[in-house]
Amino acid sequence: VRQGYFVPKNPQKYTGDVTKIIYRSSWEFKFLNYCDTNDLVIEYASEPTGIPYWNPILKKESTYWVDCYMAVKSPEGTVTQWLIEIKPNKYLNPPEEPKRLTEKQTLNYARHAKQYVINTAKFKAAQVHAAKNKMRFGIITENFLFNKV
């Protein structure tokens, strides 16, 4: 997993402290670079806001830090604000039951199921938060990152 501090080519587009733009994966790095260099993206931020949500596994209130914020201007001049999560596509769907229940496959299945339940709760909270703030919530996967960016 590649992580570090992102150095923008267009620091005026970044909302927040440009010396503290953290990325926690090569996918986040790729998306930050997309925001920084795409002319339609007029501003962006990394981990812009914490959203409270009910964690169904821990059975308590937790905070979900959305990966990115971006504002995109359409060619017609309309600005759309987005909260963006960057996740592998496999974590957006419930896990498939393993064909053979070896210890390793059972542990992986349980880990994936737990993550799916938590992600579902986080994404619901993010959609509500975005709607309340006249924004949209989107999830970017490898399908976008490796086909468009």
What can you see in these coordinates?
The chain has 149 residues and is α+β, with helices and mostly antiparallel strands. It has helices at residues 26-37, 103-132, 142-145, and strands spanning 4-5, 22-23, 41-46, 50-55, 60-65, 68-73, 79-86, 136-140. The strands form three sheets. It has a four-stranded mixed beta sheet. A two-stranded antiparallel ribbon has the order 1-2. The radius of gyration is 17 Å and the shape is globular.
The string of secondary-structure elements, in order, is EEHEEEEEHEH
Assembly of the depicted chains: single chain
What would you call the shape? Answer: globular
> What structural category characterises the helix and strand content?
alpha+beta
Return the average pLDDT rounded to an integer.
93
Number of helices, counting only DSSP H or I runs of 4 residues or more: 3
* Unreliably modeled segments: none
Main beta sheet strand tally, sense and closure: 4 strands, mixed
- Helix share of residues? 25-40%
Major beta sheet, strand line-up: 3-6-7-8
Tell how many strands the DSSP assignment holds: 8
What is the rounded distance between the termini?
Answer: 19 Å
Percent of residues in beta strands?
25-35%
Using only C-alpha atoms, the radius of gyration works out to 17 Å
List keywords for this structure.
149 residues, alpha+beta, two-stranded antiparallel ribbon, 3 helices, 8 strands
List the helices and strands and how they pair.
Layout (H helix, E strand, L loop, with lengths): L3 E2 L16 E2 L2 H12 L3 E6 L3 E6 L4 E6 L2 E6 L5 E8 L16 H30 L3 E5 L1 H4 L4
Parallel strand pairs: 7-8
Antiparallel strand pairs: 1-2, 3-6, 4-5, 6-7
